[in-house]
Specification:
31% helix, 60s Ribosomal Protein L30, Chain: A, alpha+beta, globular, six-stranded mixed beta sheet, 3 helices
Length: 145
Amino acid sequence: MRKISLLVIAVLMGTIGIAQDLQVIAPPTAPRPIGPYSHALMKGGMLFVSGQIAIDPRTGKADTATIENEINRVMLNIGAILKEAGLEWSNVIKATIYTTDLKHFDAINQVYSTYLKMPYPARETVQVAALPKKMHVEISVTAMK
């Protein structure tokens, strides 16, 4: 019984420690999350940004006129979150890009590269069957102070 009590106390202390300096990043200049998640969370100088899609925060509507528009809107949304956290694109160390069609790979790279400079973040690009709101691209990033 004593071992179980000590384990419960250790788990609770660990959980409390995680939440103590956890900062929620929720800029008014980014679209509201479409589900039960935060735009981003910062802990110990690390920023974890949820996947962003091409919703214009001013209108609440998708910006999908072209694949380039869609990617640019996603990058602008991520940029607003980075700015709210006091970071820049140069702080991004990891990106994950989801697309519904890898034929967009060149367009993704073309727009993506206008926001980032060498050394580029580590990254993967993955084709998926579908994305929220019938989008073609979703991007999440991890950044570090």
